[in-house]
């Protein structure tokens, strides 16, 4: 029972770390109260429809048979790190948290790590943000070319930005849908094989509540401090992130949606010659780097006590 409660709390923590609507904040297309509401709905349905795909990969990561103490140690370390990140408004990688926690607990118990899966996950972590940044950069350059080639006055460009604003909302909802599908496994992968529908529902509700009540602070932080984008540039970021996250989800590869999103945000900013707030970026980068060792350390400590 305690493992399921912790999984639910971890799902809430993941929902609070959902920052995909930051682009909508950056482009000033919608008020924050509507943003968190839409986020909670989209993440719920994404988790419910495709949440089982990535779970399969996590369950093959170690050769440890999950006991109650093992599950509690892993989930408790992930939940603790989410809580710390939320306090400091840091967009951490939920996937990295899980891999770190599983690895730390397994090694402490003398278990083995599936190096083939680790290599695949590390490669996905490395390539997904690079692909996201490059796609956002070149796609935005293409959008700028179309705008400046085919529009000749301010009124026409204003109409294009208004259309981009509407498309931005649609694409962001699709992105959050796939973020929910990829991320829910981080909370309920222990339990999905026994009853997929029941535990996807548990994770989906938790993520939805976390997004609704706790994601607003992080969305504002990323959307207002990293860089400034108009609707068409934000659209480039979201299309890039949506394609990358959905691709890796169908490949059953757990990636960091946060790193993909932020790299896309930076790519679009660079394409528009916008200044990137390096202090904010360095804080985010630091949080991504320390996530794996911190979760591994937490879980190793917890599993030794339990």
How would you describe this protein?
The protein is an all-alpha fold and 306 residues long. The chain has one domain. Helices cover 79% and strands 0% of the residues. The chain has helices spanning 2-16, 22-26, 32-50, 52-58, 68-87, 94-108, 115-150, 154-183, 185-188, 196-214, 216-225, 231-250, 257-271, 278-305. The longest helix has 36 residues, at 115-150.
Rg over CA atoms: 19 Å
Query: Which percent band covers the strand fraction?
Result: under 5%
Order of helices and strands: HHHHHHHHHHHHHH
Instruction: Count the beta strands.
Output: 0
Strand count, sense and barrel status of the largest sheet are:
none
Helix percentage range = over 70%
* Count of individual helical segments: 14
When the domains are counted, the total is 1
Secondary structural class: mainly alpha
Which regions have little confidence, pLDDT < 50, spanning 5+ residues? none
Q: What coarse outline follows from CA principal-axis ratios?
A: elongated
Average pLDDT metric: 81
For the record, give the distance between the C-alpha atoms at the N and C termini, rounded to a whole number: 15 Å
Present the secondary structure layout.
Layout: H1 2-16, H2 22-26, H3 32-50, H4 52-58, H5 68-87, H6 94-108, H7 115-150, H8 154-183, H9 185-188, H10 196-214, H11 216-225, H12 231-250, H13 257-271, H14 278-305
Helix pairs in contact: 1-5, 1-10, 3-8, 3-10, 5-6, 5-14, 6-14, 7-12, 7-13, 8-12, 12-13
